[in-house]
What we know:
Structural class: mainly beta
Domain DUF4412: 22-204
Strand content: 35-45%
Pfam families: DUF4412 (PF14371)
Keywords: Signal
Low-confidence stretches: 1-19
Order of helices and strands: HEEEEEEEEEHHEEE
Number of helices: 3
Mean pLDDT: 85
CATH architecture: Clam
Strand order of the largest sheet: 7-8-9-10-11-1-2-3-4-5-6-12
Radius of gyration: 17 Å
Number of domains: 1
Organism: Acidiluteibacter ferrifornacis
Protein name: DUF4412 domain-containing protein
Helix content: 10-25%
Amino acid sequence: MKPFLFLLFVINSFAVVAQEGFNGKISWKIERGKETIFRDIYVKGDSVKVEEWSKLTAKNKSIIILDLKHSVANILSGERKTYLVVNANNEPIENIEFTFKTEEADSLLGLEITKWIVHAYNLSRISNYWFSASEFSFYKKMLQLLPELNFLEKQFLQLPLSEGVMPIKAEYSNINNVQVTIMEVIKIERTDLPIEMFRIPKGYKAF
């Protein structure tokens, strides 16, 4: 099969699988050099809540509540009991010039996986993504609303396969083949979360 036709086949296949949306909690571990970040993502329809922390900031988590339908992010400060409303950032993302190829991969966390090897030749970086299309159509919209993204997330948004999929694992190395960042889902819980979890807590004031 020609590469372009294969790409269309993969995208269409992923789109069919991803029609039903995910509801529940996804836990990530993100390693950047010596720093380890933990991220919990809670999803209910078009509502998403992101909590992020490190071992040093476990008592002061970064919390963002997203409304994917209206493209609005609420950044919460638990210390100050305030929240900041941020609309979608329409500024262009740094252009990443890349080539890619696909490989078959084993399943991860019980999900069918497709592996992409991406060479960002203008930045001398090689990345690997292990994609799943199982219900994760919220993921791209979520990234487009987050105020800060790492390189793997910025590059993901420019991939032709980014619609309706989520990397279960991703990593990139520099020109010396030294691993710089690795992101990995460590747990997936499918459950119906209470809508109150995605509302601004009582007592919080607009910043």
